[in-house]
Amino acid sequence: MKFFMLTVCLFGTVFAKSPSTEWTPLPVDDPTVIKLAKQAVANVNSQEKFNYNKLIEIQEPKSVVDDGVTYMLKFIIRSTYCPISKPYHDDCEIRELPGRICSVDAHKPVGSEEIKIGRLQCDEIPLPPS
């Protein structure tokens, strides 16, 4: 009988449905994607010394369901003429610099509305050769 119970438990473990590990593409206008991108830009701006950055474009948003929802996306930001020393406003004029491309990974636990940023990295977009 013990062997039978052990066998049943092993088969149950082997054939149990695990959470999806496949990434699902998301639309760039998804409200959660936009919220995450804006939160990430605010995080970048909190590290700036001179001028605010502005969100230009969201790229490749995707999610996977695990112990909540994990998100990944890329976005492009560009520096503005609005100084960090003053409050940010949406009509800040964008500088002519090429900008930066950023990647963010974030997690939204089950039952929570808060999205916690795990990794955020930005790299300069190289200037085209002249």
Question: How is the secondary structure organized here?
Answer:
Elements: H1 2-15, E1 24-25, H2 31-45, E2 51-66, E3 68-83, E4 100-109, E5 116-124
Antiparallel strand pairs: 1-2, 2-3, 3-4, 4-5
Structure description:
There is one protein chain. This protein has 130 residues and is α+β, with helices and mostly antiparallel strands. The chain has a single domain, classed as Nuclear Transport Factor 2, Chain: A (Roll), CATH 3.10.450. Helices cover 22% and strands 41% of the residues. It has helices at residues 2-15, 31-45; strands at residues 24-25, 51-66, 68-83, 100-109, 116-124. Strands 1-2-3-4-5 form a five-stranded antiparallel beta sheet. The longest helix has 15 residues, at 31-45. The chain starts with a helix and ends in a 6-residue tail after the last strand. Residues 1-17 have low confidence and may be disordered. InterPro entries: Cystatin_dom (IPR000010), Cystatin_sf (IPR046350).
